[in-house]
Amino acid sequence: MKHLTRRFTASAVLFSSLICAGAVAEEAVSRKHAETAIEYRQSLFQLLKSNMAPLGGMAKGALPYDATVMETNAMRIEQLADMMADYLKVDTRKFDVSTGAKDDIWDNFSDVEDKIGALHTAASNLQSVAQAGDESAYRSAIGEVGAACKSCHDDYKKD
User: Fold this and answer.
1) 20 labelled as ligand-binding?
2) 118: which of 77, 136, 142, 155 is 20 to 30 A away, CA to CA?
């Protein structure tokens, strides 16, 4: 049993180090795999959108300042950013499937990961601003999150 536990632990450490090393784009192996990958990607982006919408409303003054909503939504965006590379890494180009992703996303995956890192950093900063209750800084912090999103959209999302 002790040998099995050591072997499991070693496997878990290796797996964790591979995950932490960054996602590597991989080709979808079937049409179903490609369709499923797209479905999951789009679900992730719907969650991102649902958390960005109230923040955008606050930044524009259409919604009142609410530090609790900002902190919660920024935390969620940070968590979604943590998952994003894994959900974007499946290259669906070789199948005739409907996707909003430009082909360049898989050719420049390290750039995509950098942009995800910028989103993560901006969301973390927004959490700090919300926790500090600094009403003078929240619009700028929300703007940083929006700019991180836009940066990826500009380069990797079809119009």
Assistant:
1) no
2) 136
